């Protein structure tokens, strides 16, 4: 499938940068970003090779370069924005064979695309990677006993978690996957996004997001699901990226209270933990405290920190009653990493830098082999 990525934006950049991990049937051949997103006119490196693609503003500029549409995750704070983007996608259906959707669209827009594909006379297939799935879809059933026991996962488990959302968890996990595979390890992986199957591993199970399913059911079921994967795939290492934030930001911005990560940590005990953190001006003073918090809350200390370039604008967030974030220069992050490495007892990295990520990987390998 020669895929057009639309809408191209910041959220899909990890997949573009690690396009070499895509399954053999997928190839990214064109990028289109909506006007006003600040991406059009730029050139983007695809994968680790020398392939570079320009970012276009309209489909007409790339009309002959694709036969499938890949819809990545994107943010649309106003629902009308999503509606307009979906209306543009509908225009492509007579000319493409597949729509691969990893964006969590509204039910109305998802149905609109499905219906348009159905009416195309099966010329275009809609593949919905975000479809809700219950326990039965994963070969699981609710525990019959009142206090179900957990099974021991007898393979090293590496977890990537984030103090907050959008702290590069997915990107760091892809970088670690590349290095494990490069060194010949068999990797079973659970990603924090939908559509990870396109890259040869498992998306985070949808039953863990079901509101009508109690945590006492989710925990043993996630444990059992990981055991099934290990038995089937016989990996050397299991790599799990946890969606969501480890804790609330404050009383106003609770962000799920960290319940989802807590359930995952209860289901499977990690042997190594990478923590992705937001940027803080006094970073080095809190890293050790965060590791101690993880030790007593989740029974595992932090083995390595990644510092993202995300910073929370607290004043504006309180003013608008929703979290507002900004990005800072990577050079500023590098300085924070240097300070953290000097003052923290735990290794601190900028995992988006190749050499820094190599060092992070070495720390994990040393932890697992010891």
Structure commentary:
The chain has 370 residues and is of the alpha/beta class. It is built from 10 helices and 16 strands. The protein has helices at residues 13-17, 79-90, 107-118, 169-182, 215-233, 259-267, 287-298, 314-320, 330-343, 354-369, and strands at 2-5, 27-32, 43-45, 52-56, 68-71, 98-101, 125-128, 157-162, 187-191, 202-203, 237-241, 272-277, 304-307, 310-312, 325-327, 348-349. Helix 7 links the parallel strand 12 and strand 13. The N and C termini lie far apart (43 Å). The mean pLDDT is 90.
Order of helices and strands: EHEEEEHEHEEHEEHEHEHEEHEHEH
Structural class: alpha/beta
Distance between the termini: 43 Å
Average residue pLDDT: 90
Strand portion? 15-25%
Overall outline:
globular
Main β-sheet, in a few words? Answer: 7 strands, mixed
Per DSSP E runs of 2 or more residues, the count of β-strands stands at: 16
Major sheet: arrangement of strands? 3-4-2-1-5-6-7
The low-confidence parts are none
> Percentage of helical residues?
25-40%
List the total number of helices: 10
Using only CA atoms, what is the Rg? 21 Å
Name a few traits of the molecule.
alpha/beta, 370 residues, 32% helix, seven-stranded mixed beta sheet
What's a quick, concise take on this entry?
The protein is of the alpha/beta class and 370 residues long.
């Amino acid at each position: 499938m020669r895929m057009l990525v639309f809408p191209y934006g910041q959220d899909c950049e990890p997949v573009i940068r690690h396009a070499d991990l895509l399954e053999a049937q997928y190839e990214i051949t064109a990028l289109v970003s909506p006007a006003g997103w600040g991406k059009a006119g730029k050139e983007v490196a695809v994968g680790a090779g020398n392939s570079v693609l320009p970012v276009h503003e309209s489909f007409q500029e790339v009309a002959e370069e694709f036969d499938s549409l890949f819809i990545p995750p994107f943010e649309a704070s106003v629902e009308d924005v999503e509606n307009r983007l979906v209306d543009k996608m509908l225009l492509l259906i007579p000319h493409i064979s597949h729509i691969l959707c990893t964006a969590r669209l509204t039910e109305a827009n998802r149905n609109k695309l499905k219906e348009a594909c159905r009416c195309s006379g099966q010329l275009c297939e809609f593949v919905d990677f975000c479809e809700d799935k219950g326990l039965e879809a994963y070969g699981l059933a609710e525990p019959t006993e009142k206090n179900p026991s957990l099974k021991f996962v007898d393979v090293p488990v590496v977890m990537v978690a984030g103090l907050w959302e959008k702290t590069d968890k997915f990107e760091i996990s892809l970088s670690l996957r590349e290095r494990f595979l490069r060194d010949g390890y068999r990797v079973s992986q659970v990603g924090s996004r939908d559509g990870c199957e396109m890259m040869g591993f498992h998306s985070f199970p949808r039953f863990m997001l079901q509101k009508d399913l109690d945590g006492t059911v989710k925990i043993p079921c996630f444990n059992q699901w990981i055991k099934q994967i290990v038995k089937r795939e016989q990996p050397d290492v299991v790599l799990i990226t946890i969606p969501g934030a480890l804790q609330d930001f404050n009383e106003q911005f609770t962000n799920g209270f960290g319940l989802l990560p807590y359930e995952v940590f209860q289901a499977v005990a990690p042997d190594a933990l990478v923590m992705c953190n937001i940027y803080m001006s006094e970073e080095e003073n809190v890293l050790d405290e965060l590791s101690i918090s993880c030790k007593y809350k989740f029974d595992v200390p932090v083995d390595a920190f990644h510092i993202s370039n995300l910073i929370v604008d607290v004043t504006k967030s309180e003013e608008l009653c929703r979290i507002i974030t900004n990005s800072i220069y990577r050079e500023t992050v590098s300085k924070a990493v240097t300070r953290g490495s000097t003052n923290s007892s735990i290794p601190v990295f900028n995992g988006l830098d190749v050499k820094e990520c190599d060092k992070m990987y070495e720390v994990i390998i040393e932890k697992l082999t010891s």
